[in-house]
Design a protein that fits this description.
Number of strands: 4
CATH superfamily of the largest domain: Glutaredoxin
Shape: elongated
Order of helices and strands: HEHEHEEHH
Strand content: 5-15%
Radius of gyration: 21 Å
Helix content: 40-55%
Number of helices: 5
Largest sheet: 4 strands, mixed
Bound molecules: glutathione
CATH class of the largest domain: Alpha Beta
Distance between the termini: 28 Å
Length: 122
């Protein structure tokens, strides 16, 4: 009996570890995230801290002192406010747009973040 329990325990652990491996293999590559920002910009701060909380690396392009960057942002987004956030070439919009996507559960897949496991008992 003890032998059977030991075998079951070991295979349970093995399946657990295989699950982790499969989850890692399924994880999408981290996309390129770009945040156009300015120095004084509460919405930029919120956008960056949301990305940081999710552990996402992003490139920040400060348009304050760079007119050509500002033109690039306006051309790509058709908007003048900051932040403007891009995930790969997908234009997310500003902070509110990103927060809305997050609330709808649509941001993590765009960011290549694996779905969070729940502790739900079925
Ligand atoms: N709803 C926008 C608001 C962004 C916003 O108001 N940004 C300010 C700076 S924090 C701005 O760019 N103001 C100048 C403008 O709207 O042209 C968002 O969530 O990103």
């Amino acid at each position: 009996m003890a032998g059977l329990i030991a075998v079951l325990w070991t295979s349970h652990k093995l399946i657990d570890r295989m699950g982790d491996h499969i989850r890692n293999l399924m994880r999408l590559p981290m996309p390129k995230v770009v945040v156009y920002s300015t120095n004084v910009c509460p919405y930029c701060v919120r956008a960056k801290s949301l990305l940081q909380r999710k552990g996402v690396t992003y490139e920040e392009l400060n348009i304050d002192q760079d007119f050509s960057l500002m033109e690039q942002m306006i051309e790509k987004s058709q908007r003048r406010s900051v932040p403007q956030i891009f995930i790969n070439d997908y234009h997310v919009g500003g902070y509110d747009d990103m927060a809305e996507l997050d609330a709808e559960g649509k941001l993590d897949p765009l960011l290549g973040i694996a779905p969070q496991e729940t502790d739900e008992v079925t």
